[in-house]
């Protein structure tokens, strides 16, 4: 009788499951649950950036008409557009983007919304700002406008350097915003009307660029015949 213990070989089988197969299984389960009504399909989230750029474009266009000296006998139209479109429109876009977690865009739109709110308060006849700053001439008014535009030119430069990896059209728009504030600041501090008018023409270019971004994000194959590239 042999005393040797029988030799037993153990063979383990490991099933390797790829990530793609797991993802496919998850998608199949979710699709089945959706068909049975147990899981609701994901809701489509709107892009509020179009609201922000559309509001910025319209307000920049009207202010460009005023600053360039093309329309100077209707200053109240700039105040109305600044409040009703520039301030409120960008504030709505900024809050929506903040809820979506887009820190850069929300900060940008809400900061420029603050500028148009300040512009409205300063030039609204009921605020008393114009009467106080023009009591001894227009010098104090120009200094106030130069100071606020200088501050926004600095913050716009910060936004521009923070957008160097974004599409080139975004960088162009931010560069145009900087030029608007910079030349407006120089014109207000120096009293040279030509510099203010140059800032107004940059405002026209800013409006065109902002409208282009708005259209590039709005146009799609489902609703339009063309699709604009976002360079």
UniProtKB/TrEMBL annotation:
Species assigned in the record: Syncephalastrum racemosum (Filamentous fungus)
Origin superkingdom: Eukaryota
Locations listed in the record: Membrane
InterPro entries in alphabetical order: AceTr, Gpr1/Fun34/SatP-like
GO molecular function, one term: acetate transmembrane transporter activity
GO CC annotation, single: plasma membrane
Protein's recorded name: GPR1/FUN34/yaaH family-domain-containing protein
Pfam families: Gpr1_Fun34_YaaH
Classification of source organism: Eukaryota, Fungi, Fungi incertae sedis, Mucoromycota, Mucoromycotina
Positions of transmembrane segments: 49-70, 77-98, 110-132, 144-162, 168-194, 201-219
Annotated keywords: Membrane, Transmembrane, Transmembrane helix
Membrane topology: Multi-pass membrane protein
Family membership: Belongs to the acetate uptake transporter (AceTr) (TC 2.A.96) family.
């Amino acid at each position: 009788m042999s005393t040797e213990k029988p030799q037993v070989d153990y063979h383990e089988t490991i099933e390797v499951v790829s990530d793609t197969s797991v993802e496919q299984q998850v998608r199949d389960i979710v699709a089945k649950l959706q068909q049975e009504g147990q899981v609701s399909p994901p809701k489509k989230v709107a892009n509020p950036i179009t609201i922000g750029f559309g509001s910025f474009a319209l307000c920049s266009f009207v202010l460009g008409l005023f600053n360039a000296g093309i329309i100077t006998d209707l200053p109240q139209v700039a105040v109305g557009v600044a409040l009703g479109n520039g301030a409120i429109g960008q504030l709505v876009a900024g809050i929506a983007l903040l809820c979506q977690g887009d820190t850069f865009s929300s900060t940008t739109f809400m900061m420029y919304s603050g500028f148009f709110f300040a512009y409205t308060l300063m030039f609204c006849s009921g605020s008393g700002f114009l009467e106080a700053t023009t009591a001894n001439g227009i010098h104090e008014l120009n200094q106030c406008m130069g100071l606020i535009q200088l501050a926004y030119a600095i913050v716009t430069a910060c936004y521009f350097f923070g957008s160097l990896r974004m599409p080139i059209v975004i960088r162009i728009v931010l560069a145009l915003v900087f030029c608007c504030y910079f030349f407006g600041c120089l014109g207000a501090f120096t009293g040279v009307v030509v510099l203010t008018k140059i800032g107004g023409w940059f405002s026209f270019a800013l409006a065109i660029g902002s409208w282009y971004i708005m259209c590039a994000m709005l146009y799609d194959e489902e609703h339009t015949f063309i699709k604009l590239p976002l360079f």
